[in-house]
Amino acid sequence: MFPENLSTPDLTADLDPRFVFDFKAYDDLGPGQRWSTWLDIEPLSRGPEPRPDWVVTSQGAIDTDLGILKTGKEADVFLLDRTDPHDPAQSVVMAAKRYRSSEHRTFHRSATYTEGRSMKRSRDERALKRKSTFGREVAAAEWAISEWSALQRCWDLGLPVPYPVQIDGTEILMEWITVPGTDGDADDGPQTAPRLAQTRPDPVLLESYFEQLRSAMLALVQAGLVHGDLSAYNILAAGDRLVIIDLPQLVDLVGNAGGFDFLQRDCTNVCGWFERRGLAVDAHELFGDLVAHAF
Predict the structure, then answer these.
(1) What is the DSSP code string of the chain?
(2) What pLDDT, on a 0 to 100 scale, did the predictor assign at position 194?
(3) 147 with 174: CB under 8 angstroms?
(4) Mean pLDDT for each 10-residue chunk of the chain (295 residues)?
(5) pTM for the full model?
(6) How many CB atoms lie within 10 A of CB 250?
(7) What angle do helix axes 133-156 and 122-130 make, rounded to 10 degrees?
């Protein structure tokens, strides 16, 4: 036994502070939650650097599904909150685009868009041609990879696209494009930016929108690329700026036999919408201008 007047020694007094840390326990995950997949993926599956400061990289972050944002022919877009419960500064809401399985996809135009592309594995290419079950799964993954590559390339070119955060299988996490709340009140929270087709801009903003879109299309063709499915339905109006979305079908202008046809169609779709809103633009003139700058 120790004498009663002997005090208990402080065992931490001589410890190196580098080996002392606070431990915080995390609660169990709830429905619709998962641990952040940021550290589970390869470095090349993460967005280009320098990354925006809102990207959450904490190992303790939790992903929470907030519901569906948009449905499409080949994929659905959800809102996903990624937050570290012990570090509120590490918190962001992103758009999660998830390509559907082969049984639930209705996208039938892929052959015309993928002409000129090559696959790394011949086994996958044979499966695609046979349209087997495995081939359909490969196709879903290929569309996700195609959009991921397109987003990265367009972001590096300085084009107005959402920042690509990461890809994991058939899921792409990207920047959520927003506008202020409907009442203009910060407390109302951000809202998803509307599609250009849903807007009625005044003449000055309408002209600005067209010039922004023309500049983006010009940058694309100068890089040898065409959106391939551009219209007012896959352009977001984030206040006074436009953001282009839905890029899995990005086409090589020269490598794809229909590259110039896709460009002509993009010009027709875009100019048709602006003409109906009262702006005097011409699809043939835009097409000629873009082609002149493509070489």
Answers:
(1) ---TTPPPP-TTTTS-GGG-----PPPPP-TTEEE--GGGS-GGGBPPSSPPTT----TT-EEEEEEEEEE-SSEEEEEEEEEETTEEEEEEEEEEEEEPPGGG-----HHHHHTT---S-HHHHHHHHHT-HHHHHHHHHHHHHHHHHHHHHHHHTT-S---EEEEETTEEEEEPPEE--TTS-GGG--EEPPBGGG----HHHHHHHHHHHHHHHHHHHHTTEE-SS-STTSEEEETTEEEE---TT-EETTTSTTHHHHHHHHHHHHHHHHHHTT----HHHHHHHHHHT--
(2) 97
(3) no
(4) 56 64 70 95 96 96 96 92 95 96 54 54 48 53 92 97 97 97 66 97 98 98 96 97 95 93 97 98 97 89
(5) 0.82
(6) 22
(7) 120
Count how many Cα atoms sit within 13 Å of the Cα of residue 37 in the half-sphere of its side chain.
19
Q: Which pLDDT score is estimated for 271? A: 98
The whole-number pLDDT of residue 114 equals 57
Asked if residues 152 and 144 have their Cβ atoms less than 8 Å apart, the reply is no
